[in-house]
Specification:
CATH superfamily of the largest domain: Zn peptidases
Oligomer: single chain
Strand content: 15-25%
Strand order of the largest sheet: 1-2-6-3-7-15
Radius of gyration: 23 Å
CATH class of the largest domain: Alpha Beta
Number of domains: 2
Shape: globular
Order of helices and strands: HHEEEEEHEHHEEEHEEHEEHEHEEH
Structural class: alpha/beta
Length: 368
Amino acid sequence: MNVQELTHDLVAIPSVSRDTNKEVADRSEAALLEAGFSVERLLYIDDAGVEKFNLVGKKGDGQGGLGFFSHSDTVPGDEGWEPYAPRIADGRLYGRGSCDMKGPLSASIVAASQVNANDLKHPVFIGVTSDEEVGHAGAKQISAESATLAAAWPQFAVVCEPSLMTPVYAHKGAITIVVTAHGVAAHSSTDKGESANFKMAPFLVEMSELAKEFKSNPGYRNGEFDPPTNGFNMVINDGGTAANVTAAKSVCTVCLRSMPRSGSEAIERLILERVTAYGFEVQTFGHAVFYSDRDSTLARTACELTGHEQAITVPYGTEAVTYQNFAETIVMGPGNVAQAHTVGEYIELDQLDRAVDVYRRLIKKLCQ
């Protein structure tokens, strides 16, 4: 099994989160079966009525072991290039999902294919999920419903998101707060309208002042992360109301990149207190922080195999927030996250080859 060929095949299959991922799940399942895995397939219907498929493969018997987890969905690729016509040039494989994260998925399958099941004292698992880009629904489903995982979770879990094969022990979470003010639409010449934007304006001023506090106060920082702040951001939308019409609705969306021991919870409370004071509507959602032991067995072993002195933190999010509840977890995958979601997305071929080598040696170290 060749990692470039498998990546090429997966990238050539469109699997944007809004659509079904059946075809890419079928190709991934075929690769897992060829690699000697038994495969469990799980189905769910998303909120738009679209079928989504998740896979859990297992190779070998016994308890514990090592799991590799990747997602099969991508962000849209129709930005004026040929995202689903993968090509190799200049030592790179180009195409939507090559880096995030069909290349990393392929590397994990190919690495596991090179290990004989009879040599395993502990099993190898591979998870292939849907809808990571829109809320991690696939990871949540396999964690809650997979019979394979329910029987025995692996002791160790590697989330194969691109990290240039640097072991990652923590990443930021996300808190999104959607604040809505309502007004009355009317032509401005009548003076009978009530602008939701004017209602929202004092709240925006308060958020501007709080933003300065959140970035300057040491109590809202964590030096383990780069940047060490909670990434306070705010966007505003009144639906494109014309200048001569009073806005019927004004929506302010606040987003935090939360960190442990950084006052993230206090920030959220402060914002919600001000929303309540103004009587605005509010919705909150997001995902948790991923935080593990930098000196765990898995992190130390991964550093040993990759030549890194220690595991690091990153600012972006992954499905590790789910898997950390069941197994000792790190993030480590080929490719540069700077390529994720970009026009002309690519992964370096030497990164794919390195990932296969490191993943294979990790399996041998922890499972044989």
